[in-house]
Amino acid sequence: MKIKGKLTFKSERAEDLVNIIAQSLAPDNVSGIKTILKDDSATVIFDGEKVGTILSSVDDYLMNAKIAYEILNSGSQKD
Fold first, then answer.
1. What is the distance between the alpha carbons of residues 54 and 71, in angstroms, rounded to a whole number?
2. So what's the architecture of 3-74 in CATH?
3. What average pLDDT does the structure give for the chain?
């Protein structure tokens, strides 16, 4: 059985933030993962044969996206 899913990341800071996060996550785009960039969003499409593999990939991807987002926003926060 083929399983498909997608995540869409949007940003108020639009292109800059979305593009940086998508580029930083590109090495995670193994077979079955594709990233599509549009104006203010990045859509990540996952597909595979096993539910466990898809869930693991999505979990890893979201954790890495969270880290990239936190790093990008750490410079804009005051101590």
1. 26
2. 2-Layer Sandwich (3.30)
3. 77
